[in-house]
Amino acid sequence: MSKFLDDAARKRFSRAVETVENASAVEVVIAVRHTSGTYRHANAIFGGLVAFAALAVMLFAPRSFSLPAILVDPFIVGLLAAWLVELLPHVKRRLTPRAWRRAHVTRAARAAFVERGVHATTGRSGLLVYISWLEREVALVPDLGLARDIADGVLARAEDELSRAMPKGVAVAAGVEALAPAMATAMPHRADDVNELPDAIDSDE
Question: What is the pTM of this model?
Answer without folding.
Answer: 0.90
